[in-house]
Design brief:
This protein is an alpha/beta fold. Helices cover about 30% and strands about 15% of the residues.
């Protein structure tokens, strides 16, 4: 079991996209009320008084769409300036990056993962549930701008959904050949939208590797990440290909992370809330910070017994109805 030293912080559960697999148009989501969101200073207190003393050194800001959080640049600056912070990253849909990448970089953000499920503007718009003016170009410009200001390597996340974007795996993989971009293919999880998740709903990473290998060859990369991705490279390529295979291979024993939702619940696993703690209410009730640290420390101890796969198969339909945007993906 790895030491747990990585906290994913959801800054907000709302989003400016409606991805079919996450927040499909028309889905009735219970958004968090503004007064129930963790305040900026509460996030900082939790990091400084609870997580850093317990050994946490890596933080990722996510959501919903984290760039919709008011004051996000300042939150980045505060976390980046803590001497204990070794790694501060963000996962974003990239739509607002063309205007925000530079100030985020200046505030101290150094790593960014941008979701991009298609290189075709029409398909992209259909995946993100957009019926108005295409949003692909602005997202693409956000990616270019992030790379220009210094987010290097730049990571692109692709959720592969059969019948929707699996035909683009080679085109997306080809982005790594001439530039130091890291494209990461994520197995689609049975979360969020039951209608999309039929019997053939996810494609094992091994199949994707085979397709890529048949086209260009594929070698294991010398670069290893600190996350769950298995990293490969097209021979001679500048960038890498990561495969996140949480459906086909259980990597719970390598998991080094816990998640803080935008309303302050600390959960030990993406899909398993066993032992979760309502940190926001505890803070607002004035619970002693040493006692809170103790509770969190206990949660870290039971995390070793918690399993993602059991949780998926343990739901009645095998489909988990909370969305990634609600959990903090
Ligand atoms: N809005 C940001 C974004 O899209 O990058 C951050 C939050 S989003 C919930 C984080 C990641 O979760 C994205 O890469 C998204 O593709 C992924 N995701 C959402 N629902 C998923 C699902 N059912 N299976 C696999 N990945 C999913
Ligand atoms: Fe929004 Fe990200 Fe969910 Fe898409 S995956 S709806 S961009 S939170």
């Amino acid at each position: 079991m790895n030491p747990v030293d990585y906290l994913r912080i959801s800054l907000i559960d709302r989003c400016n996209f409606r991805c079919q697999y996450c927040m499909p148009e028309g889905a009735e989501l219970d958004y968090i009320f503004k007064q129930d969101l963790l305040r900026d200073e509460e996030i900082l207190t939790l990091i400084k008084e609870i997580f850093i003393p317990l050994g946490f050194r890596k933080f990722r800001l996510t959501g919903g769409e984290p760039l919709l959080r008011p004051n996000v640049v300042n939150i980045v600056k505060e976390i980046a300036s803590l001497p204990e912070t070794q790694d501060l990253a963000m996962t974003t849909n990239g739509f607002l990056l063309a205007q925000m990448a530079e100030e985020l970089y200046e505030a101290g953000l150094r790593r960014i993962n941008i979701s991009l499920d298609s290189l075709s503007p029409e398909k992209f718009d259909s995946i993100i549930g957009n019926r108005g003016k295409s949003r692909w170009q602005q997202t693409w410009e956000g990616i270019q701008e992030a790379y220009r200001v210094g987010f290097n390597p730049l990571k692109l996340n692709v959720v592969v959904i059969p019948g929707i974007n699996d035909g683009e795996v080679l085109d997306l993989a080809a982005l790594t050949i001439n530039q130091n971009w890291h494209v990461r293919f994520i197995e689609f999880m049975p979360i969020g939208n039951p209608e999309l998740f039929g019997s053939q709903a996810w494609i094992p990473s091994a199949d994707l590797r085979q397709w890529i290998s048949d086209r260009w060859g594929l070698v294991e990369s010398k670069i290893t990440g600190n996350g769950p991705a298995d990293i490969f490279q097209i021979p001679g390529a500048k960038g890498t290909l990561g495969f996140i295979s949480q459906m086909s291979e259980c990597f719970c024993d390598r998991c080094n992370r816990v998640r803080l939702s935008a309303d302050g619940w600390l959960r030990p696993c993406l899909l398993n809330e066993t032992g979760q703690i309502d940190l926001k209410t505890s803070l607002r009730q004035g619970v002693d910070l040493a006692e809170l640290r103790q509770r969190v420390s206990q949660l870290l101890t039971i995390k070793a017994e918690i399993n993602f796969k059991d949780r998926v198969s343990g739901t009645q339909s095998g489909i988990y109805t909370r969305t990634m945007s609600q959990i903090g993906g």
